[in-house]
Amino acid sequence: MKPLLLFLFCLLLWLGTPDPGYAMVRTTQEAPDQILIQSRHQLKDNQRSVWQVILFARQQELQLRLVCFPDRYHFRHPDPLVLETISGAKFEAQDDFPKGETVTNVGQFNLLPVIKEIPKDQRLILTLPLQEGDIQVLVPAAVIVEWQSVIQQQNLIKPS
Q: pLDDT, tens digit, for every residue of 66-76?
């Protein structure tokens, strides 16, 4: 009986421990008056491929970088990223990958012009413009809440 209880206790402890690799927020001082804040997540697309999704904010800049591993998909630069709310509202974020440094399996998009339109606590569907055909990544509501926190820390939008 005791080994079974010990096994069940260990199993519950293991299942109740959050995955430390799921999300990470990093703050880096790039210069005396410039802070970079990043939110990193591993999210799956509708084809079950894993994407590294990085939101980074610095002085009047808000970028979303998407990277697929391994080099399975290739972005159609300079096509925009489509963001869709669960209510069906759609927005486009322009391709903002540094010119001359384009890497086909990396997309980077300017979210600053559209961030005020995105609901603060609802999931979001990203439609990625890929050479192989558009695919979708679902961004959970908890990630959007974290993004809003990063944005407020950088004073890019005022809390409502």
A: 999 777 899 99
Rounded CA separation 25/34 (Å): 17
**Tens digits of per-residue pLDDT, 12-51?**
444 443 443 445 787 887 788 888 899 999 999 999 999 9
Q: Is 123 exposed, middle or buried (0-12, 13-18, 19+ CB in 10 A)?
A: middle
Domains of the chain with bracketed CATH:
24-153 (2.60.40)
Place of tokens 């999704």: 53
Q: How many CB atoms lie within 10 A of CB 119?
A: 14
In angstroms, the CA 95 to CA 72 distance is: 19
Pick from 116, 80, 118, 72: nearest CA to 97: 80
Name the amino acid, one letter, at 126.
L
Q: What is the pTM of this model?
A: 0.80
Collapse the DSSP code of 85 into the 3-class scheme (helix H, G, I; strand E, B; otherwise coil) and give the result.
Answer: strand
